[in-house]
Design a protein that fits this description.
The complex is a heterodimer of chains A (147) and B (708). Chain A has helices at residues 2-8, 64-67, 140-143, and strands at residues 10-17, 20-25, 29-34, 48-54, 57-63, 80-86, 89-95, 97-104, 109-110, 124-130, 133-138. Chain A is mainly β and 147 residues long. The radius of gyration of chain A is 15 Å and the shape is globular. Chain B is built from 27 helices and 22 strands. In chain B, the strands form five sheets. Chain B has a six-stranded mixed β-sheet with strand order 14-18-19-17-16-15. Chain B has a five-stranded mixed β-sheet with strand order 6-8-9-11-10. In chain B, strands 20-12-13-22-21 form a five-stranded mixed β-sheet, with no helix packed on it. The chains are: A mainly beta (147), B alpha+beta (708). The A-B interface holds A 36-37, 39-44, 48, 50-53, 55-60, 89-91, 144, 146-147 and B 344-345, 347-348, 351, 590, 634-637, 675-682, 684-687, 690, 692, 696-700.
């Protein structure tokens, strides 16, 4: 079973941030939620939008646009929170729109080192190419540092 | 066989047994002739041996095995209990604990060798014993009966072959067998319950080997007003008769000794059964014979564990039966994480219920309203029930102290009597886990600084034996723990001198301080009044650590002391950490919770009442100057009203100090469930946590201590 999946490639959840498309390994995602009451936390780091109640659990929500140094976008009908587990801690990421789930074959993923040698980009897992689309695959674990 | 799945259970149970051994051994030291305690120790050691063997922890097994040998000799009266012996046994327990800790951390027993202890144990055995080795290891055949009493019950009242064997063996050992018929009053309403009481009473004095009707039928009330049992006992007929007749609603009892003739007759009638019984006894003998070859102990350990239960004399198995049944039937071990999950689900349920109540556009018939109300009642009860599950008796912490005090008193040569009360007081599990260390600190303090040496005590006209009281009790929403000693007390002058010497306070200022203020300096970091540093305390890290810990748990600590008479430390802890009463306030559009316990009062003032003192806003409340903190500004709340004429101020206290929090609006008082903000948001000073409100929104809890 495992080898089967390997051969067929990994599944990625594809989402939109501004005009760019990004992907995250589906295995690490707990759930995708609509934006609901986000409570602002005073004195929290700038990139943290606040906390939400996810079925009784308090989950911090990270503004992904800030982390990716993109322009801030307004919350719309399409905005979603992707809840992701890092070291057993749930963290939410605000994304502009969740598009679909794609299977990307390993041979269609280009290593980031071939595009840029910038080490600060280690949160980019690779660049996926599906037909004419280009998807930036993220390593969210690298994006968040938990002390 | 993979044992890893059992290791958790093993650890939990082994801990319990070691704790149990510690307690019993302490008791035994005080009452060396109490066979019940000795048997309890024996049983615990034996069970540990079996468990360790099953799990393949050979070092633990060897140690407990040797302990058992010594205990057996004590039981046979071949060794007298003395302090030296108890010390060795305590050392064994310490070694067992070392093994256990190693198993907890690494899953292995570790490299610790306890040969010295084992050798001293073996020396004990060799000194006193010449030829008893075989007796120790050889399980007595007649003992087998007790564990297997439920074999083959027949409707008629004739002891079957198996029971006869037991009775015969009992006779040989000068233990009496009686047939007891008990008649219950015809007017008795709950005869099963009554019968249960009778069985309990009987089990106190004897071993029940047969009952007609069967025990299960009696429990189901499937009997008329009488039943008959066969028992074996060392007690006299009169005693049993007296005990039975003292039970209410027992009409008559007939006690008939079982004699050989009767037995012989019965034997004839149930001849066919005997083969079966013989078979089982033979099987047991074989197993025990196998056990004697301890060399291949590993393989037959499991077997021994099972037989082990049947391997004691009658008095013992009686004890075994009663204590076993009380222990296993009542509790279930649950991982605290699972309880947290349950708790979360309940919170979630409450939230969805609140939402259900608020849904608009539903046709609200009476039926609908009733259903919602019913749901509300159920969720509230469910919530309470789950909270209660998290509560554990403080006994869990207290029960290790007697042993500790004993060791300390031997170490220091002081005579100390520890009196504990209120062990059953319940606290939230999280508090229980944290409170142990502070209490140890305080008890050590009492031993080291408080209680004087016996000579000195005699000199000043006190009892040579010092007393430390450890009390716990519930007081409203708090649990109070007191550590009191009748020792030297705190010498305020000595503290004063130390304060001046260490430059903490100038000579001029010292007299302005009250006695209470001075004593409170003991809670300052690196402050100790002990003249010399001992192993026990005196490094000055004690009391301030204690205070920090207690405050972290949301509690307070006070001290009362009288020089020469003793001191008393009083700890107040909230009943639970998870749920508190809070005041919800509105600042701008955001809701915040302020713990009710720190709120003094709420006042409405006019903006012109606020004065400025060194750029700090203050108000004067009943001649007290109180600094004002505008929460909207501190918490960077967008669009908080700042310039209205009427201002609401929540007056809070941090210790003695008062502060006023300016808020926009009050929402109301509410019970809230405290949740952590998680690791990602740790270290935000102004916020103590978060809670989920009825509508599912998250509200933050203000950390009064850091703001005020």
């Amino acid at each position: 079973m495992e080898t089967q999946v390997q051969r067929e490639g990994n599944q990625f959840v594809i989402f939109r941030m501004g005009n760019e498309e990004y992907g995250i390994d589906i295995q690490k995602i707990t759930t995708i939620e609509k934006v609901f009451n986000i409570t602002r936390v005073p004195q929290a780091p700038e990139s943290i939008k606040g906390v939400v109640n996810l079925r009784g659990e308090i989950v911090p929500v990270v503004e992904l646009s800030k982390k990716l140094k993109m322009e801030h976008s307004e919350i719309t009908e399409d905005t979603r929170i992707i809840i992701f587990k890092i070291d057993d801690i749930s963290v939410g990421f605000v994304v502009d729109e969740v598009l679909e789930v794609l299977t990307i074959l390993p041979e269609h993923i280009e290593n980031i080192n071939q595009v840029s040698s910038d080490v600060s980009l280690d949160y980019i897992y690779g660049i996926g190419k599906v037909k004419e689309r280009i998807v930036t695959l993220l390593n969210l674990d690298k994006l968040i540092v938990i002390k | 066989m993979d044992m890893s799945q059992y290791i958790e259970i093993f650890i939990e149970e082994a801990k319990e047994h070691v704790q149990n051994l510690n307690q019993s051994l302490l008791q035994l030291e005080k009452n060396p002739n109490d066979m019940v305690i000795l048997n309890e120790i024996f049983r615990a050691a034996h069970t540990l041996k079996g468990m360790a063997g099953t799990m393949g922890f050979n070092k633990m097994m060897t140690l407990t095995h040797d302990m058992e040998d010594v205990l057996q000799l004590i039981r046979n009266g071949e060794i007298k209990i003395n302090t030296k012996l108890v010390d060795i046994l305590f050392k064994c327990l310490d070694a067992l604990e070392i093994y256990l800790n190693s198993i907890i951390s690494s899953g292995k027993e570790g490299d610790f060798y306890c040969e010295e202890i084992i050798n001293s144990l073996r020396k004990m055995i060799q000194e006193k014993v010449i030829d008893t080795e075989t007796e120790i290891n050889c399980p007595k055949p007649q003992d087998k009966g007790s564990g297997l009493e439920n074999f083959g019950h027949t409707a008629q009242f004739i002891p079957d072959g198996y029971e006869q064997k037991v009775i015969n063996k009992a006779k040989e050992m000068n233990i009496n067998a009686y047939k007891i018929t008990i008649m219950i009053d015809k007017g008795c309403l709950l005869k099963a319950a009554r019968a249960f009481i009778i069985f309990q009473t009987l089990e106190k004095y004897c071993e029940i080997i047969k009952s007609v009707p069967h025990v299960e039928d009696i429990e189901d009330e499937k009997f008329d007003f009488e039943f008959t049992v066969i028992v074996i006992t060392k007690e006299s007929e009169e005693l049993i008769s007296k005990e039975l007749n003292s039970i209410a609603e027992v009409e008559k009892t007939f006690i008939i000794p079982m004699n050989q003739k009767e037995l012989a007759e019965a034997q004839r009638t149930t001849g066919s059964d005997i083969d079966g019984a013989n078979y089982s006894i033979n099987a047991l003998n074989e197993i025990s014979a196998g056990l004697l070859q301890e060399g291949n102990s590993e393989t037959c350990m499991q077997g021994e564990y099972e037989v082990g239960l049947a391997e004691k004399d009658f008095k013992d198995s009686k004890l075994l039966n009663t204590s076993k049944s009380t222990k296993t039937g009542k509790t279930v071990r649950v991982d605290i994480d699972r309880l947290d999950v349950l708790m979360n689900l309940v919170s979630e349920l409450i939230i969805i219920k609140t939402r259900l109540e608020g849904i608009e556009g539903v046709q609200r018939t009476q039926n609908y309203n009733e259903a919602v109300e019913y749901l509300e009642r159920i969720t509230t009860s469910l919530h309470d029930a789950v909270m209660k599950v998290r509560m554990v008796p403080i006994e869990m912490v207290f029960n290790r102290f007697p042993r500790m005090i004993r060791d300390l008193s031997r170490e220091t040569g002081k005579q100390i009597n520890l009196i504990m009360s209120g062990e059953e007081t319940e606290l939230d599990r999280t508090v229980i886990d944290e409170i142990g260390d502070p209490l140890i600190h305080m008890l050590r303090n009492s031993v080291d600084h408080g209680i004087e040496s016996p000579d000195k005590r005699k000199e000043i006209g006190k009892e040579p034996v010092g007393t430390i009281y450890l009390r716990a009790y519930q007081d409203g929403n708090n649990v109070v723990i007191e550590v009191e000693d009748d020792g030297a007390g705190i010498n305020a002058d000595k503290v004063k001198k130390k304060l001046i010497d260490s430059g903490l306070i100038t000579k001029e200022n010292i007299n302005t301080l009250s006695k209470k203020d001075i004593i409170n300096y003991l809670f300052r970091p690196s402050f100790s009044t002990a003249d010399k540093i001992t192993d026990i305390s005196g490094r000055g890290v004690g009391l301030d650590v204690v205070r920090t810990k207690i405050e972290a748990l949301g509690g307070v600590i006070e001290v009362e002391s009288e020089n020469g008479k003793g001191s008393k430390f009083i700890i107040r802890l909230p009943l639970t950490l998870a749920i508190i009463q809070a005041l919800l306030v509105l600042i701008g559009q955001e809701k915040f919770a302020i713990p009710l316990s720190s709120i003094r009062e709420i006042i409405n003032i006019e903006s012109k009442d606020i004065k400025l003192v060194q750029k700090q806003e203050v108000i004067i409340l009943r001649k007290n100057v109180i600094p004002i903190i505008r929460l909207g500004e501190v918490l960077d709340v967008p669009d908080a009203k700042s310039n209205s004429d009427q201002i609401t101020v929540v007056v809070v206290n941090k210790g003695e100090k008062l502060s006023g929090f300016v808020v926009d609006n009050l929402i109301g008082q509410q019970e809230i469930v405290i949740k952590s903000l998680g690791k990602l948001l740790m270290g935000i000073k102004t916020i103590a946590g978060a809670t989920i409100l009825g509508d599912g929104q998250v509200a933050l809890i203000i950390d009064v201590n850091s703001l005020a």
